[in-house]
Inverse folding.
């Protein structure tokens, strides 16, 4: 039987989750950890500009760390990790084509700035992972320049072995010196590396060691399924890379980008990587959004149980890595137009086990779609104060837009930003949500996503309706933990049933 005395508390208490907005500290004894908390993806060039040149930089990011997580844990978003999109020198604005794996792009700052960032993050309990782009280099990387020079001058090959050269035209290959062609899957100026080269692998190991020694918690691994054409060879490569990293840092965190189907993503859980991004759940066509627009909570619960269950079958230590959008996808606020649905989607992906990833600005309702530059525009700190404002990528044809800037949204108790803060705080409050196994409670009303995660039950109402749930049968002998209600309406208890407000989330505990 449900403990009804708990359910009949005054409504003000039932909404305790929303009253946590003043702080985001975790319970005593539960040390912050990027491995169970929430990560935040940052495009440094668009985040905060410290020197007035319009380009975001590392000192600017350092100056805004208190927004992400302050030392006291008060008045912040409450994330426990950040993923920096590439910070190495590169000729492009996005920097996914590296010319030097051992330096910081001068536009972003210096290595001393990076070391300062690591220090300031450690003080706050924020882990830092960096994008490691090793499927390809820039065509201006010294390795590639040396390889082309070898071809031009006929000197004995060394760096040629770092890349894939053939002597005849083929799709995805580009002509170069000596009548040869080089492989460049993504773009002519991103020549693909050849990981069959033992010398190159030794270089990659050195690069990993260099950054882990700097204090990064790990890496976000770009284009992880493109290293080789064959999946098995990719798995072998990542096993090799994971072993290298774990020798250097036993608790390294490696999260791979395998932008593919569910079965392909799952296959990479056998590769030593800790986590893979959950692409099938993300985006406008993803399972989360599709379930919400169809008010089909049962479908969402079914998928969540199945996907996270399969991860554990393949790798008991494997971590789920859900997200709504990233730098390559349309921003979620563009297709989730209902403010209440934005809040619901936040609670859906942030209250799953593993390591959820927020894309910077998502918590503000920032929009951006179409060409890549539009998805990476300037972070909006204030609608009136231009301090630190970045210009964003030159090629963007739509400016940044959101519900408001950080300053305005922090001051608005009903804002999406404050909802994110509340959800992240609740994730910290219930460790079972971070690490538990998902069981579908199979709500008889399809509008509810009802799951047990470890010993904690979560009920999401995916519909715009007030939905009555028989809590005594869905989660027997459990009592109310917290309620998140996008509309601000209260949870109403009628005997042994509860009426969930539209788009609300209810957390039940043993
Ligand atoms: Ca700058």
């Amino acid at each position: 039987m449900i403990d009804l005395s708990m359910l009949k508390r005054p409504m003000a208490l039932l909404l305790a989750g929303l009253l946590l907005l003043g702080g985001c500290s975790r319970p005593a004894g539960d040390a912050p950890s990027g491995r169970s908390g929430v990560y935040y993806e940052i495009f440094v060039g668009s985040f905060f500009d410290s020197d007035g040149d319009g380009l975001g930089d590392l000192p600017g990011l350092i100056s805004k760390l208190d927004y992400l997580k302050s030392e006291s844990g008060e008045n912040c978003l409450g994330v426990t990790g950040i993923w920096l999109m590439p910070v190495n020198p590169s000729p492009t604005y996005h920097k996914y084509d590296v010319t030097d794996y051992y330096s910081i792009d001068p536009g972003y700052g210096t290595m001393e700035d990076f070391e300062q960032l690591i220090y300031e993050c450690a003080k706050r309990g924020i882990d830092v992972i960096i994008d490691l782009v090793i499927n390809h280099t820039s065509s201006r990387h010294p390795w590639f320049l040396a390889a082309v020079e070898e071809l031009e001058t006929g000197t004995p090959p060394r760096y040629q072995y770092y890349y894939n050269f053939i002597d005849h035209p083929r799709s995805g290959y580009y002509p170069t010196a000596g009548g040869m062609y080089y492989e460049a899957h993504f773009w002519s100026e991103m020549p693909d590396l050849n990981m069959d080269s033992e010398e190159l692998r030794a270089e990659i190991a050195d690069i990993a060691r260099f950054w882990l020694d700097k204090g990064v918690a790990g890496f976000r691994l770009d284009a992880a399924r493109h290293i080789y054409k064959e999946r098995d060879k990719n798995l072998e490569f990542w096993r090799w890379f994971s072993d290298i990293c774990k020798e250097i840092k036993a608790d390294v965190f490696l999260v791979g980008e395998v932008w593919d189907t569910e079965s392909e993503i799952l296959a990479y859980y056998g590769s030593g990587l800790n986590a893979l991004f959950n692409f099938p759940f993300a985006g406008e066509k993803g399972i989360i959004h599709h379930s919400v627009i169809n008010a089909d909570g049962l479908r969402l619960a079914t998928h969540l149980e199945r996907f996270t269950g399969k991860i554990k079958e393949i790798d008991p230590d494997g971590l789920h890595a859900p997200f709504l959008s990233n730098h390559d996808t349309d921003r979620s606020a563009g297709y989730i137009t209902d403010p209440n649905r934005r809040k619901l989607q936040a609670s859906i992906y942030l209250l799953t086990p593993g390591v959820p990833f927020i894309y910077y600005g998502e918590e503000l309702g920032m929009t951006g779609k179409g060409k890549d530059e539009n998805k990476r525009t300037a972070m909006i700190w204030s609608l009136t104060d231009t301090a630190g404002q970045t210009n964003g990528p030159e090629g963007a044809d739509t400016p940044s837009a959101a519900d408001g800037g950080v300053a305005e949204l922090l001051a608005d108790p009903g804002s999406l930003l404050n909802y994110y803060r509340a959800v992240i705080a609740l994730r910290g409050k219930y460790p079972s949500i971070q690490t538990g196994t998902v069981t579908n409670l199979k709500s008889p009303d399809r509008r509810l996503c009802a799951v047990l995660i470890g010993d904690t039950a979560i009920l999401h109402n995916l519909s715009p309706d007030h939905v009555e749930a028989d809590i005594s049968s869905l989660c027997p002998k459990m009592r109310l933990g917290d309620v998140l209600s996008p509309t601000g309406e209260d949870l109403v208890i009628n005997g042994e049933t509860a009426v969930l407000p539209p788009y609300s989330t209810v957390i039940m505990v043993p």
